[in-house]
């Protein structure tokens, strides 16, 4: 199945999220509808405060919308047990968090059995040697922590991986490795990867499809190369020219 | 036995004056508090003394219930003020303090450690509620600050398909332990670092040291029981305010 051409795995319909700020309601996500296909790579881009992270949090039900819905395999998220849903729609945050203990203990956090050697076998998939398993999680670099966090999520064998600015705290070399990893995982495991990124250049490197959000609204969406090189709307042009930051 | 009367109390005011003079000399801005505190504690304690004399003499169970209810309400209100990160701290504290007090006192009555008399129930309930109130206040404070300060850790765990209970278990345990730390430290050091106030009071009032010690041991176990119950209930109920049925962290 070619990337982005598979069946719809996640679908948002008129998705709207509001937050209360200074006793006023502010729409952080405003009427966003889109279909994410199995095995596809998707980038959510937009200026600061565009609602990118807010949108991502709705996809694994860390938050609920005030209007609209998200469908996973055609069924509303509310029809799934939240704990079961989040194993299938895994999410990683901007700052990777590893629990106190060793890398192995972090990987085992997701396993049913403590002595499950399967956990350590996930390290090579994210480009880390098995010897990493005995390292103290606290001693790792941010890039290494992000890889362990990805490995920890992969143990759950998710269908969708949501990444909230996974390289924002990394140096260019580590960022490149994470980008390569995202593409490999998507291709090898037919994993749908949705990445929030602040950088249009990163979205171009990841390819796939891109959704441009501005003030919570979906301004433009489609093939990444088209959106970011031949924008159709004035808003998209302004974003690419960095006039919206 | 120590001589007690208003004359001795008046003489003891000299001690408060020493504190006042020292504070003033070193320009520590607590003179007002010392002045008010000296008068206030005198008025409050004398009033309580008369109230207890009246209740003991009347032998009315309803007056005992009323006194306990007032202590519970004031204790719950004070502990509830510490619930900065969630709503209805007062209600949760009231349940925690009431359960801790009733279970502990009920067991003491059932095991015939004490009998149903105002002179046992009121002072012991006062000790139970004041200790349980402190435990609840500390537990409230700890659970609120720990959960708010560890949002990333909690949401990481939720995102790995763990339930809110699994994701917050560590903070639950820490908060209960924080609420109990005072009584646990007390039990470790009692008799070595300091003689407890109640025991000292009994010895000063003429009770033999061995009798005072036996009563103090009962008091220590009583406080351990009530504090543990109150700390667990206060954390058990308050932690639910941070999550909803969709396993979302909502505060």
Please name the defining characteristics of this protein:
heterodimer, A: 245 residues, alpha/beta, 6-stranded mixed beta sheet, 4-stranded antiparallel beta sheet, 8 helices, 29% helix, B: 251 residues, mainly alpha, 9 helices, 0% strand
Can you characterise this structure?
The complex is a heterodimer of chains A (245) and B (251). Chain A has 245 residues and is an alpha/beta fold. Chain A is built from eight helices and ten strands. Chain A has helices at residues 52-59, 82-88, 103-108, 142-154, 172-189, 200-206, 224-229, 234-240, and strands at residues 8-21, 24-37, 41-45, 67-72, 75-76, 89-92, 160-164, 192-196, 209-214, 217-223. Chain A has a six-stranded mixed beta sheet, sandwiched between helices. Chain B has 251 residues and is mainly alpha-helical. Chain B contains nine helices and no strands. Chain B is globular and about 70 Å long. At the A-B interface, helix 2, strand 6 and helix 4 of A face helix 6 of B.
Lay out the secondary structure.
The complex is a heterodimer of chains A (245) and B (251).
Chain A: E1 8-21, E2 24-37, E3 41-45, H1 52-59, E4 67-72, E5 75-76, H2 82-88, E6 89-92, H3 103-108, H4 142-154, E7 160-164, H5 172-189, E8 192-196, H6 200-206, E9 209-214, E10 217-223, H7 224-229, H8 234-240
Parallel strand pairs in A: 3-8, 3-9, 6-7, 7-8
Antiparallel strand pairs in A: 1-2, 1-4, 4-5, 9-10
Chain B: H1 6-25, H2 31-58, H3 61-80, H4 89-110, H5 118-149, H6 151-159, H7 164-189, H8 197-204, H9 209-239
Structure in a nutshell:
The complex is a heterodimer of chains A (245) and B (251). Chain A is of the alpha/beta class. Chain A is built from 8 helices and 10 strands.
- End-to-end span of chain A in angstroms? 37 Å
Given the structure, what is the number of helices of chain A?
A: 8
Largest interface: A-B, 24 and 15 residues
- What integer is the average pLDDT of chain B? 92
Low-confidence stretches of chain B: none
- Per DSSP, what share of the residues of chain B sits in E-state strands of 2 or more residues? under 5%
Which sequence of SSEs, written as H and E, runs from N to C of chain B? HHHHHHHHH
Assembly of the depicted chains:
heterodimer
Give the low-pLDDT segments of chain A. Answer: none
* Mass-distribution shape of chain B: globular
Structural class of chain A: alpha/beta
Q: Which structural class is indicated by helix and strand composition of chain B?
A: mainly alpha
Helix % of chain A is: 25-40%
Shape category of chain A: globular
């Amino acid at each position: 199945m070619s990337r982005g051409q598979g069946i719809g795995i996640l679908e948002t319909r008129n998705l709207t999220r509001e937050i209360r700020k200074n006793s006023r309601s502010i729409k952080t996500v405003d009427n966003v509808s889109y279909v994410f296909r199995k095995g596809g790579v998707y980038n959510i881009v937009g200026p600061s405060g565009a609602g990118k992270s807010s949108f991502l949090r709705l996809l694994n039900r860390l938050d609920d919308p005030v209007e609209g819905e998200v469908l996973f395999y055609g069924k509303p998220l509310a029809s799934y047990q939240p704990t079961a849903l989040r194993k299938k729609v895994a999410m990683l945050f901007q700052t990777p968090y590893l629990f106190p203990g060793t890398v192995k203990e972090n990987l085992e956090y997701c396993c049913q059995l403590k002595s499950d050697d399967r956990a350590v076998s996930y390290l090579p998939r994210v480009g880390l040697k098995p010897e990493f398993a005995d390292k103290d999680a606290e001693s790792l670099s941010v890039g290494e922590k992000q890889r362990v966090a990805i490995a920890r999520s992969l143990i759950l064998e998710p269908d969708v991986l949501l990444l909230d600015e996974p390289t924002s705290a990394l140096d260019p070399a580590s960022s490149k490795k994470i980008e390569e990893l995202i593409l490999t995982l998507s291709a090898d495991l037919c994993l749908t990867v949705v990445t929030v990124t602040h950088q249009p250049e990163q979205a171009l490197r990841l390819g796939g499809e891109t959704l441009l959000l501005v003030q919570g609204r979906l301004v433009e969406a489609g093939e990444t190369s088209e959106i970011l090189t031949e924008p159709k709307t004035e808003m998209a042009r302004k974003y690419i020219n960095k006039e919206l930051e | 036995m120590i001589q007690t009367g208003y004359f001795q109390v008046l003489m003891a005011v000299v001690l408060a004056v020493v504190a006042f003079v020292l504070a003033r000399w070193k320009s520590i801005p607590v003179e007002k508090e010392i002045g008010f505190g000296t008068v206030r504690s005198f008025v409050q304690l004398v009033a309580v003394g008369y109230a207890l004399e009246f209740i003991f003499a009347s032998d009315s169970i309803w007056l005992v219930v009323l006194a306990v209810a007032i202590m519970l309400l004031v204790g719950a209100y004070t502990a509830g003020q510490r619930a900065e990160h969630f709503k209805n701290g007062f209600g949760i504290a009231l349940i925690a303090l009431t359960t801790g007090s009733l279970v502990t006192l009920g067991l003491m009555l059932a095991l015939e450690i004490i009998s149903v008399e105002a002179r046992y129930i009121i002072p012991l309930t006062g000790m139970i509620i004041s200790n349980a109130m402190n435990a609840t206040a500390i537990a409230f404070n700890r659970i609120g600050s720990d959960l708010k300060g560890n949002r990333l850790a909690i949401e990481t765990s939720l995102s790995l398909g763990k339930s809110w209970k699994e994701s917050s278990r560590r903070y639950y345990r820490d908060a209960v332990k924080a609420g109990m730390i005072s009584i646990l430290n007390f039990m470790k050091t009692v008799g070595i670092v300091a003689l407890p106030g109640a025991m000292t009071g009994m010895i000063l009032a003429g009770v033999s040291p061995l009798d005072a010690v036996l009563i103090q041991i009962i008091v220590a176990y009583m406080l351990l029981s009530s504090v543990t119950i109150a700390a667990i209930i206060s954390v058990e109920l308050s932690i639910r305010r941070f999550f909803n049925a969709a396993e979302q962290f909502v505060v």
